[in-house]
Amino acid sequence: MADTEPAPQNPDFDRVNFLELRNSQLAEAIKRVESERHYMEAEILRLQREVKRLKTELDRLRYPPLIVGSVRDILTDGRVVVKSSTGPDFVVNSAENVEHDKLSVGCRVALNKQTLAVMGVLPASVDPLVTASEIVEKPNVAYSDIGGLSDQIRDIREAVEYPLLRTELYKKVGVEPPKGVLLIGPPGTGKTMIAKAVAHHTHATFIRLVGSELVQKYIGEGARLVRELFQLAREKAPTVIFIDEIDSIGAKRLEVATSGDREVQRTLMQLLAEMDGFEPLANTKIIAATNRPDILDEALLRPGRFDRIIEIPVPSYQGRAEIFRIHSAGMAIKDSIDFDALANHTDGATGADIKSICTEAGMFAIREERDYVTAADFDRAVEKVVGEEELRKESVTMFA
Ligand SMILES: Nc1ncnc2c1ncn2[C@@H]1O[C@H](COP(=O)(O)OP(=O)(O)O)[C@@H](O)[C@H]1O
Ligand SMILES: [Mg+2]
Prior knowledge:
By secondary structure, the protein is of the alpha/beta class. The protein contains 13 helices and 10 strands. A 5-stranded antiparallel β-sheet has the order 3-2-1-4-5, with no helix packed on it. The chain has a 5-stranded parallel β-sheet with strand order 7-8-9-6-10, with helices on both faces. Helix 3 packs parallel to helix 5 (191-202). The chain starts with 12 loop residues before the first helix and ends with a helix. The model is unreliable at 129-134 (pLDDT under 50). Magnesium ion is lined by residues 191-192, 244, 289.
């Protein structure tokens, strides 16, 4: 039942309808413009940010270049002694934003071109020519600091020190000194000490390289580092190169080789090539040390390489007494200490063990607020360190 009756004719109806329609159209338009305005405002903000970004970028690019230098010393007043890659040393201030705990002697820094003020701390470089100051050192160990190894000290002086000092004499007499000396012996017996003492007494440049560091720290760079070190050694000759823990790079090659093994192998090949590359009478000598001579690659021991082996044994009774005397010399001791008795009770102890006994004796005094050490402190220290040693050995055999 559709309603067929037409709508009543209202003359105003169309007009009202029209106005309503127009109204809604205008409202729509307002909405659109409003949203356009929002969009534009957002766009303005975006562009303002972009301008700001480009301005800082421009500033950054216009920033004057910084000079690379290294820190020589840090003064108590906070100023820093720097050395730029060229030229002399300068005392300078450092910028406020530089983290002072990161500043240390030997680290690389960026310097303002005009004032040479420290602007930032740079990460260490692996390039030995840049960080030469880290690798080249003047050790502070004298032969007299080493107890009980007089034969070994004589051997190494004949093999390393005299050829460096008296090259002409060796040439005239016609004997070829060894190119490389290998120190073998248990840990803590003084191998590193001896190498340092040689460098101390020869006044030669001393370049120290630790095998395990070479493998872990300079991954993929080992061979290059070895090459550059020998280059550095030639430039700074006379030089003693000391390779500590050489077993890390010079272990026998096994059949199954991982990529890490291959990298270690490349480092070793480079080392062998460098050693073969110079004359026995050249003023570069190589000392290496290891506690694991049994795992060394024979290639290292061929003539013309490490062809002089010096064994550094665990100290004898007399050696131990001597080492006790050396390490307690700087201590405030009451009465007198019977070093021979101490040596008697420390059979099998290494130099490093004896050093820790002396430190431990001092600790007993400090714990009891005394400013002197007594014979009883030493006895307790021996008991403690030797006891710990025994425990350690037991656990080693347990796990072996
Ligand atoms: N023969 C020694 N005379 C004096 N001190 C020694 C001796 N051997 C070892 N020491 C002490 O032990 C520490 C470690 O010795 P180190 O030379 O590093 O042993 P190695 O290199 O053979 O493992 C030295 O810093 C030193 O204090
Ligand atoms: Mg050592």
